[in-house]
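Reminder to self: tokens first, then the designed residues, so the page reads top to bottom the way the pipeline ran.
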């Protein structure tokens, strides 16, 4: 005994497909924002050492006009 796919099946299939795509998009955007926030916190959270100072008081390059 074979079963045919009724129009209700295709309607429900389309609705579930759209809902699944929406949930996937929202979850992806949320996880992406969380990853970016964690990366920014990691980069800005670490104190960096000051660059070494040279022995000269003025390291600027002279510019001729």
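Designed residues (65 positions):
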């Amino acid at each position: 005994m074979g079963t045919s796919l009724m129009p209700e099946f295709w309607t429900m299939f389309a609705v579930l497909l759209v809902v699944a795509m929406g949930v996937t998009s929202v979850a992806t955007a949320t996880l992406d924002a969380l990853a970016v926030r964690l990366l920014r916190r990691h980069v800005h959270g670490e104190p960096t050492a000051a660059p070494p100072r040279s022995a000269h008081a003025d390291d600027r390059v002279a510019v001729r006009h």
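The chain has a mean pLDDT of 81.
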